[in-house]
């Protein structure tokens, strides 16, 4: 579980909201297309655990410019995993918000 401050939570919610509308602030659209059109094996538990560290660091950073700079420095394979994880979070957020609550 990742601990976040109120300000960090607001930023994460903003990023997710923008992504659900097709505005992917942190990622280049061509790169996102490449990641999802290239064939790759699913992430194992160890790879997913390693990506969690990068997601935590992104959340802790102040400002989109710093987050984008951090992302640009990641190794290609790690970057692809971060992108897939990010979009999995966005997808889960969409799913949760669309469920009818009784």
Tally of individual helices: 5
From N to C, what is the helix and strand string? HHHHH
Number of domains: 1
User: What is the arithmetic mean of pLDDT?
Assistant: 88
User: What oligomeric state do these chains adopt?
Assistant: single chain
Total beta-strand segments? 0
Tell me the Rg in angstroms.
Answer: 14 Å
Percent of residues in helices: over 70%
Structural class designation: mainly alpha
Q: N-to-C terminal Cα separation, in Å?
A: 27 Å
Beta-strand proportion = under 5%
- Biggest sheet details: none
Spans of at least 5 consecutive residues whose pLDDT stays below 50 are none
Shape: globular
Descriptive tags:
single chain, 102 residues, mainly alpha, 71% helix
Summarize the structure.
This protein has five helices and no strands. By secondary structure, it is mostly helical.
How does this structure look, described?
The chain is mainly alpha-helical and 102 residues long. It has one domain. It is 71% helix and 0% strand. The chain contains 5 helices and no strands. Helix 1 packs across helix 5 (76-98) and helix 3 (45-60) packs across helix 5 (76-98). The radius of gyration is 14 Å and the shape is globular.
């Amino acid at each position: 579980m990742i601990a976040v401050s109120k300000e960090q939570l607001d930023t994460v919610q903003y990023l997710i909201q923008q992504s659900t509308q097709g505005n992917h602030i942190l990622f280049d659209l061509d790169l996102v297309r490449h990641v999802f059109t290239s064939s790759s094996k699913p992430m194992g538990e160890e790879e997913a655990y390693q990506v969690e560290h990068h997601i935590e660091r992104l959340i802790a950073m102040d400002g989109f410019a710093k987050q984008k700079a951090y992302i640009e420095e990641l190794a290609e394979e790690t970057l692809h995993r971060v992108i897939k994880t990010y979009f999995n979070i966005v997808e889960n957020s969409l799913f949760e918000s669309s469920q009818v609550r009784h």
